[in-house]
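Following up on my earlier thread - several people asked me to post the actual chain instead of describing it. Fair enough. Here it is, all 105 residues.
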Amino acid sequence: MFVAPDRRLISQAHLAEALEDELYALRAHLPQVESFRMDRATLLAGQAQWGEEEKPVQRELTRLTDDERASYDDLGDNRLARHLRLEQERIGFGRVEQALADLLA
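Reply from S.P.:
Thanks for posting it. Predicted structure:
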């Protein structure tokens, strides 16, 4: 659970939905915006940290890139594991550092 600035409790599922909505809204104005670490390679590299989503939500996200769509479909269709979830904060910092270095190269 997270606490919003107005002191409301926000579940992790609602937070994820809000972040997806933010990316969706941002791409309405800046379609070239790229996500960070939302790819299959990151998902597979984090297998040791995989968890299970208690209440999976699947909805149509129309502003995903082809790679993001493929990863989203893999998750929604349970291709890799049932109700697979990988928390972003569990992704190894070394992978984040490498991704930043790749972006700046």
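Helices lie at 12-29, 40-45, 66-76, 93-104. That should answer part of your original question.
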